């Protein structure tokens, strides 16, 4: 009887997590955006920060991650209220409780604890940011599956949502032990809304090429079950509501794929993007009632201006903020209405912006 109840509970959970093929398309251009609100930032000069690539607000701390380097400076911990640099964490290496690369950071709800993800080693590491211990508290590798997962984020303290690249299926929802909950979405759906360059036809494209063109970080909010992708080289925003089982696609402000040619690497189709690679969206944040996406729209080798678009969960635009410092990653304190970012300038560091909705 107990086993039967467990099976029934699992079936109900899978049904509740199934995301229907409901891709309501919403196109926009620059003219459709709300009037710009200029935000002036305050840039800090925290020592130790060299080449930051991520930022996370957790409890009383701000955590800044570094790009690949050989130093034991993977994570920088800052006291938010005192505006004081505390210590670095993350021993460089591939041994037990060491970290080679911090690709992303997540708050799963446990006090003073964060999880990092190393996409190269498929390794999740848990850190206690309330102390200066270099090694992680816990770790595990993403399970061996018949799928290749790139981006991944948490949907609870025991389940993960990952992006797929080696087939037409777009997302995978699994437990951290590897139990498959479901897969959903199709990269084919994204092709419906874009004109292909150079006369290519949709049937000529393999899934790994298409998924490369639509790659994006997955950001989410465990408490409300809303997750978002903001395309890196193709300008789209996908809003996923896991609890309601639906998704919405917002396309713009350019509405075009980058120009590319089909090439092959180790037998796999790959897009060779022609000309300078323009970054469209570089990051996103899911709040309690709205989402924020960071728009660049420029070649990163040039001086660029960062803008943050705020949308509701139905894809309607609420605000457009223009920042006076270029940033590539950010997090928001919605209660205090503060944007924390890491700058993309010659001397990168932490910058803050105050905003009013």
From TrEMBL:
> What's the name of the protein?
TolB-like protein
């Amino acid at each position: 009887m107990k086993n039967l109840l467990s099976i029934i509970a699992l079936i109900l959970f899978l049904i509740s997590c199934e995301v229907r093929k409901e891709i309501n398309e919403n196109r926009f251009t620059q003219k459709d955006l709300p009037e710009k609100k200029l935000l002036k930032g305050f840039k800090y000069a925290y020592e130790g920060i060299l080449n930051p690539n991520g930022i996370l607000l957790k409890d009383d701390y701000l955590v800044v991650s570094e790009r690949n380097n050989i130093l034991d400076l993977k994570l920088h911990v800052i006291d938010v209220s005192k505006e004081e640099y505390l210590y670095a964490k993350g021993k460089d290496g591939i041994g037990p409780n060491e970290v080679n690369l911090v690709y992303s950071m997540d708050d799963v709800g446990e006090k003073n604890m964060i999880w990092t993800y190393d996409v190269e080693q498929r390794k999740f590491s848990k850190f206690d940011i309330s102390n200066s211990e270099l090694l992680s508290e816990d770790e595990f590798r993403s399970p061996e599956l018949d799928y290749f997962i790139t981006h991944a984020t948490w949907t609870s303290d025991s389940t993960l949502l990952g992006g797929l690249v080696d087939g037409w299926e777009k997302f995978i929802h699994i437990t951290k032990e590897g139990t498959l909950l479901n897969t959903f979405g199709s990269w084919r759906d994204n092709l419906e809304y874009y004109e292909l360059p150079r006369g290519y036809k949709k049937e000529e494209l393999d899934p790994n090429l298409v998924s490369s063109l639509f790659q994006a970080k997955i950001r989410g909010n465990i408490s409300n079950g809303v997750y978002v992708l903001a395309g890196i080289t193709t300008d789209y925003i996908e809003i996923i509501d896991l609890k309601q089982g639906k998704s919405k696609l917002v396309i713009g402000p350019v509405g075009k794929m980058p120009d590319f040619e089909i090439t092959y690497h180790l037998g796999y189709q790959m897009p060779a993007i022609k000309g300078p690679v323009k970054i469209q969206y570089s990051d996103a944040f899911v709040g309690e009632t709205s989402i924020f996406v960071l728009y660049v729209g420029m070649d990163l080798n040039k001086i660029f201006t960062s803008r943050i678009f705020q949308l509701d969960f139905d894809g309607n635009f609420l605000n457009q903020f223009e920042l006076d410092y270029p940033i590539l990653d950010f997090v928001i304190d919605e209660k205090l209405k503060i944007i924390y970012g890491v700058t993309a300038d010659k001397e990168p560091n932490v910058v803050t912006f105050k905003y009013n909705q």
